[in-house]
Amino acid sequence: MTGSTGFVRLSHIDQGTGEPELLILHGLFGSARNWAGLAKRFAETRRVVAVDARNHGGSPWDDDMAYPAMAADLLEQIDTLGLTRPVVLGHSMGGKTAMYAALSRPEKIGALIVADMAPVAYRHTHMPLVVAMRALDLARVRRRAEADAALAPVAPQQAMRDFLLQNLVFENGRARWRLNLAAIAMHLPGLLGWDSPAPAAPFAGPALFVHGGRSAFVRPEYHETIRRLFPAARIETITGAGHWLHADRPAEFAVAVERFLATLG
After folding, report:
1. Environment class of residue 93 by beta-carbon count within 10 Å: exposed (0-12), middle (13-18) or buried (19+)?
2. Which residues pair with residue 48 across a beta bridge?
3. Residue segments in the chain with a per-residue pLDDT below the cut of 70
4. How far apart are the C-alpha atoms of 67 and 169, rounded to whole Å?
5. What is the pLDDT of residues 6-49, one digit of tens each?
6. 167: Cβ contacts below 8 Å, ≥ 6 apart
7. What is the pLDDT, as a whole number, of residue 98?
8. Has residue 37 been placed in a domain?
9. Fewest C-beta atoms under 10 Å: which of 10, 133, 134, 136?
């Protein structure tokens, strides 16, 4: 599926019962499956929906990957699944999507949890990774190890390659990406940037900004911007965690989320 369509219906995993409901948005190159363990834990006490963002996982592909479009997907999913002002938890790109949705339609979202992300523009780029993934000749890739070796020069850390290669699937002996790399490449500068929806009235609801102590994504100088747009924000650090804090320190991350959820009643 290509072309701007307003919103796309997202692939999702829905489990558990109870409120406040929790909707989980993964980050760039991720999927709902990355959150399976934590989603199962959270679903012991509430309904939990983990979604695949457009151009990721099992969700449709679309040329538009700007935050207004992805926020529209999120809001449509809330309506389609009959969620009642859920708590929205977003990591990285998913965090920016969640923030954009909360600022543009605050009446739809009960509370916000943003994992290792701030409403600011970043200067780094993932373009070398995208270029390397697009350069793989998938017609000649027969084993995951071949793709792993090809990505090693631009992604020397094995954990990063393992994360990226979760998106490589083999069907009838042929490899394909579960990512729309063309759309990601086209929109990458915008995904790393940030433009608040207009008018950008603050989101007054409860908000938790939790970040990794080894990550530079939520610097102290960003706190003022966070609190300007999300005046009720609590900002917490998970010591020893990097950007993928939910994978680096899953137990500590789960406790932080559950402690915040307990304050919502």
Report:
1. buried
2. 15, 22
3. 1-5, 200
4. 27
5. 789 999 999 999 999 999 999 999 999 999 999 999 999 999 99
6. 29, 31, 56, 177, 178, 179
7. 98
8. yes
9. 134
Query: Tell me: the pLDDT tens digits for 196-222?
Result: 898 768 999 999 999 999 999 999 999
Q: How many CA atoms lie within 13 A of 46 on its CB side?
A: 22
Distance (Å, rounded) from C-alpha 140 to C-alpha 149? Answer: 13
What is the pLDDT, as a whole number, of residue 6?
A: 72
Residue tagged 């631009």 (tokens): 154
Residues 156 and 28 in one domain: no
Do residues 141 and 158 share a domain? yes
pLDDT at 221: 97
In which domain, by residue range, is 248 found?
12-122+193-262
Same domain? For 39 and 100 the reply is yes
Letter string b/e over residues 129-148, b meaning 16 or more CB atoms within 10 A of that residue's CB: bbebbeebeeeebeebeebb
* 76 Cβ contact partners less than 8 Å away, ≥ 6 residues apart: 7, 9
Do 112 and 209 have their domain in common? yes
Name the residue with tokens 């457009």. Answer: 54
